[in-house]
Every structure is written in structure tokens, then in C-alpha cells.
Amino acid sequence: MPDVIIIGAGISGLSCAWKLKKLGIDAAVLEASSRAGGVIRTENVNGYQIEWGPNSFQLAPRAFQIIDELGLYEELLAPDPHAPRYVFVNGRLRKFPFGPLSFGGIIRILGEPFVRSKSATDESVSGFFRRRFGGQAHDRLVAPLLTGMYAANTEHLSMAAVFPRMVEMEREYGSLAGAMLRSFTRRSNSSEPAPSRPKPRGSVFSFHGGMQVLPAKIAENVNVQYGVNHARVGDAPVTVLAVPTYRAVEILEQPHSAIANLLRKVRYAPMVIAATSLPEDSVKEPLRGFGFLAPRNQGLHLLGTLFSSALFTGRAPNER
Questions:
Q1: How far apart are the C-alpha atoms of 148 and 151, rounded to whole Å?
Q2: CA atoms within 13 A on the CB side of 291
Q3: Which of 4, 56, 142, 222 has its CA 20 to 30 A from that of 94?
Q4: Strand pairing partners for 54?
């Protein structure tokens, strides 16, 4: 029997198993399906490389460390660091960040250092950014960005959960702008591990073979057992649940009903991913950039669109 059982072979469960392996702890990952990766799934269809889950990731220090340890450094694929991002406002794609804003909206943002109010409770993301930066900055910049990440209404997102550092900055300095200015005068004392090689330039990354490369590589190097449909808490000294909360509820229903009842309250936003293809000559200008986000008040029934073939090479056939 392993020391640790990890239920779920998504990226969280796999990363946990990899870390435990590096620490010399015996762990087994139990997965109900026949594949690793969870929502990360890359499929090649008729010359197209399609991502049915996340399209890219931010290279945080811990993620970079795992990628380096797995020998995937050379597989990293970065887009053009200067590729623009757009927001759909009033029937046009406007370049982020200032394009979607009016003159008055920009002036309101610049007034943030003079906002003296502070959040006394667990404020929503919407309430925080409207209070500090104004309604237009929230509606045309913050809300589309967070909707693209969480597919959720910012009225229902906790500021303390999503941006805890910003809440701390406001409480400590009274202004986010003031806190950022002071941070430039301080030397970083980061406790993150130093990478063995320089971090590549870019804000987001993928792999030449798609996002599936990372979970597949981890799964090859840890103990993953597939087709396990009845995993239980207590079959090992330590059990890690790396599954969606609705699945965790099923596992915890009998042994830990109080925890299961709390997890039932977690909301999941439904999302549909549609892959589309157009001939290059069907658009007036060549597609360039990351894509665009659509604010909820603009009348489009979508969160946004990624220009996948413009973002990363090898995603579509020639002239598509």
C-alpha cells in the first residue's frame, strides 16, 4: 500500500504526485477514466491542433521548475510577446488596455491613489474594482479578463480569493498605485527556487505538441492507475482529493458528510468550447494577436475568441 493515495489524474493530482516522488514519498494516483490530464486535452483533427481545455499557461516559478525537471524546457512554445489583445466594445475590436476606455474612464483610473475607502469585509471583485477604478474600467477591462479565466460573474467572485495581494496592498498602503511605486524601491526576497536555466521570454506558453504534453509526461513518470471508479478516503494513511468538488462530494458523502455539504455550495460555470476555421483570404486583415474578449453588456453570446493559429505555430493547415 502506498503512503499517499491521490484521487484524480488532472494536472493538480499529477503535480502533487511528482512533488511527492521528488521527496521520496510513495504515492499512487487513482484515475477513473482511461487518460491523464483532466480538462487538459489536445486533439489533432485534419491538420488542426485543437485544445478542448486550457489553451496556454503562465510560467510561474513552480511550474517552470516542474517543466525543467521533466526535461520539457526545449518543448516550450511562446507566442509573439508583442502580440496585442483586444476587447470587443461598440462593434469594434479595441486594443487592450486603453483602447476600450473613454477619456473619462482613463481619468477615473488615474484617480485611484485618491480613493481613501477600504474594504471592510470580503468584497466582491466587482465591488472592489468599481470602487477603486470606476465602472468603465471594471466593465471593459477587469470583467472580460476574469470572465475569460473563471467564466464567472465578478459579482460572485471573492476579491480575497482571486486577488489576495491587492487586498493586502490596499489595507497596508491605502492605494494600489502607491503600493506598486513603493515595491520598485524594495529588493525582492523571493523564496522561490532558482531555476537551473533562464526563464524564456513571454507571459503565456504552450508546447509544440499542445497542452497535453505536460500531463502526459508527468503521468509517464509517476504511478497512475486508470479505470479506478470506486476510490475511497482511508485506503492509505494519507488521501489527497484532486477532483472537482462535485466528485469530491460523492467520495466524502458517507465518511465526512459535513465537508461534503460545504463542497455542495461551490458553483461551477458551464462552458462550451467551439473550434472554428476560416480561410485566410476571408478576413480583411491578417489575424494578429491573442484574440478578443467580449464584455457581457456588448450583446455577444460568447466570452471571447482565441486566435490560436496566430498565437502558436502549427495549430492549423496553411492558408487557414
A1: 6
A2: 18
A3: 56
A4: none
Q: What number of other Cβ atoms are within 10 A of residue 278's Cβ?
A: 11
What pTM does this model have? 0.84
Cell numbers describing residue 231: 476510490
Beta-carbon count within 10 A of 57 CB: 16
Name all domains of the chain by residue range, CATH numbers in brackets. 4-81+201-263 (3.50.50.60), 99-183 (1.10.3110.10)
Q: How far is CA 52 from CA 247, 255, 274, 315, in A?
A: 20, 34, 8, 13
pLDDT digits (tens, 9 = 90+) for 250-283: 999 888 999 999 999 988 888 888 999 988 888 8
Tell me how crowded residue 313 is: count the other CB atoms within 10 A of its CB. 11
The residue with cell 533562464 is: 198
Q: What is the pLDDT of residues 275-310, one digit of tens each?
A: 999 888 888 877 788 899 999 888 888 888 999 888
Q: Which of 304, 250, 231, 317 is nearest to 277 (CA)?
A: 317
Q: Is 85 helix (H, G, I), strand (E, B) or coil?
A: strand
Question: Quick count: other Cβ atoms within 10 Å of Cβ 202?
Answer: 16
